[in-house]
Amino acid sequence: MVELPAYFDEVDGGFEPTAFAASQWSSAQLVGPALCGLMARELEREHATDGFVPVRLTVDMFSAARFEHTTTPMVRVRDGKRIRVADVMVMQGGTMAARASAVLLRPSEQPPGELWQREFEPRPPALDIAPPSPLPQIPLFNSDGNPGQWSSVPTEHENATRKRTWQNPIRVITGEELSPFTRTAVVGEAASMMTNWGDAGIGFINTDMTLALSRMPQGYEIGVEADSHFSERGMAVGVATLFDRLGPFGSAMVTSVSNAARQISSAQLDAVMIARS
User: Fold this and answer.
1) The whole model's pTM is what?
2) In this structure, are strands 247-258 and 235-244 parallel, antiparallel, or unpaired?
3) Rounded to an integer, what is the distance from CA 257 to the centroid of its chain?
4) Domains of the chain (ranges plus CATH)?
5) CA dihedral angle for residue 142, residue 32, residue 199, residue 232, rounded to 10 degrees
6) Distance (Å, rounded) from C-alpha 39 to C-alpha 186?
7) pLDDT tens digits for 137-153?
8) Half-sphere exposure of 95 (CA within 13 A, CB side)
9) 213: number of CA atoms within 13 Å, CB side?
10) What is the mean pLDDT of residues 173-186?
């Protein structure tokens, strides 16, 4: 049986990155979705017990994580009746390369009353364009500048309008199915790409990501639609809505720093998509 692609192999009590974990910024460092997925996976496995579910994940990527054996020590910061908080670190050669914190809540009843909701919900691609599949798929992209076109060709959306993507990602660990939470962490990191992608490609690299979830996604695919981008003096903030075929279920926020010397063009992204196909 052919093994599905994954970011890491479990080796010697830790994790060894595979070729799929290489970043587009540098082949010597790990890509953001791999780190986010790994830390989400570890936090969920250890702390999403006794009825608690993860509702917030904050990842700090303050150093370039390298292609090395990686371990993920954890600590439970708080353990209450309704709120649980836990931290995880990405350690390489005795040095911390990234960290994450999760808030887990015990579900309860909804309070009475109606609240404001987003007026226009993101729309996933039609089923004939993106039929559901348990297997990883090439990401699809869409933009307001080319609204009728969902495709895996980034240059078709090289414009200065709102971007969105629809993704069914690869696994985090070889031989292990993605949980809905880990799947969201992997795809949610695309908030950086969606909010920082302009008509000259991507010139900001995110230093963090925060997911906030009202529920877990349903199905294999998750969408990310840009809501805002604010930047000045080489610093940026972007917020995106996460959605599935049932509608929006959360938000992702990233802060980013200019990386103009390594600007990623849409043509480079095209080459990445071709390599994945």
Assistant:
1) 0.94
2) antiparallel
3) 18
4) 6-106+130-276 (2.40.160.210)
5) 130
6) 10
7) 999 999 998 767 999 99
8) 8
9) 27
10) 97
